[in-house]
Amino acid sequence: MKKRKLLSQRHPFLYFLAVNARRLKRRFEWIFDDKKYAETKAVDKLEFRIKKHQSVLLKKLGDNNEQLQINKVTNLKIASTKINGIIVKPGETFSFCKLVGLPTKKKGYLLGMELSFGEAKAGIGGGICQISNLIHWLVMHSPLTVTERHHHSFDPFPDDGRVLPFGSGATVFYNYLDYQFTNNTEHSFQINLWFSDKCLEGELRINTLLDYAYHVVEKEHQFLKIDGQFYRKNEIWRDKLLKFEGGKVVATELLTKNFARVTYTPERYVEQ
Question: Sorted alphabetically, which Pfam families does this protein's record hold (predicted)?
């Protein structure tokens, strides 16, 4: 049975009208809400590193245009300059969209791959979610508080060298799908981004050495087939460890439960 299109897909004008309305609402929020947004950047790095991670730049994503992957690297390098070195002081909120701004051709952004309405397609600035994904992974290993995060409602490609748990990313779409976290601690944090030959690399640093750390794990991962459609589910948990007591676990929390439609056929699945 052919899937019925959404109203916004049948009438694109309504989609763009809704997008612009949401973008305007967000701009008003940035001006009038009571948040203090992080905007200070520093060349010098804060003294202590909390977490480092790297993400492969060119990935095998089905049969998609290789040029979109190459263009994505350009997009990532432009967007990363807006974030690299950002300091998030006590009481401040990090906003991905506020820092990066709207990706446009005029700013040098190219057509990259983005996910929309259950399919992958080309869009200006496509691929910069790789930065928000990496930052979210770093933040998950810290005492920072995630206050806004969105994830895709479907899984478009089979895993190819995936090292992070499924559903641990954070998608962004300027500016109403933002990624934000707030620093409710007494410490200052810093995000640094850079590029190696094959990877986007990043780290989260802090001005004070903490006596605890975090370990994030995936549980209950499974592919399901329900009424002829494939789905993927899992849970992401986090342990808080004391560094100087042999890694003693002092707290465990469920961060998120994921359940998403899969647009490919997994090798192994449970039929229900």
Answer: VanW
Separation between Cα atoms, residue 215 and residue 5, nearest integer Å:
41
Q: Are the C-beta atoms of 112 and 149 separated by less than 8 Å? A: no
**Which residue in this structure is represented by tokens 């850079």?**
194
Asked if 105 and 111 touch (Cβ cutoff 8 Å), the reply is no
- pLDDT tens, residue by residue, 211-233: 999 999 999 999 999 999 999 99
Angle (nearest 5°) at CA 229 between 227 and 233: 110
In this structure, the strands spanning 212-226 and 180-182 are unpaired
CB 127 within 8 A of CB 114: yes
How far is it, in rounded angstroms, from Cα 167 to Cα 156? 12
Residue partners of 222: CB distance under 8 A and separation at least 6: 232, 233, 234, 269, 270
Phi, psi (degrees; rounded to nearest 5) at 225: -120, 115
**Encoding tokens for residue 99?**
């820092």
Query: Whole-structure pTM over 0.85, yes or no?
Result: yes
User: Considering all CA atoms of the chain, what is the largest pairwise distance in Å, rounded to the nearest integer?
Assistant: 60
What does the alpha-carbon distance between residue 185 and residue 194 come to, in Å, rounded to a whole number? Answer: 26
Q: pLDDT tens digits, residue range 147-194?
A: 999 987 788 777 766 778 999 999 999 888 999 999 999 999 999 999
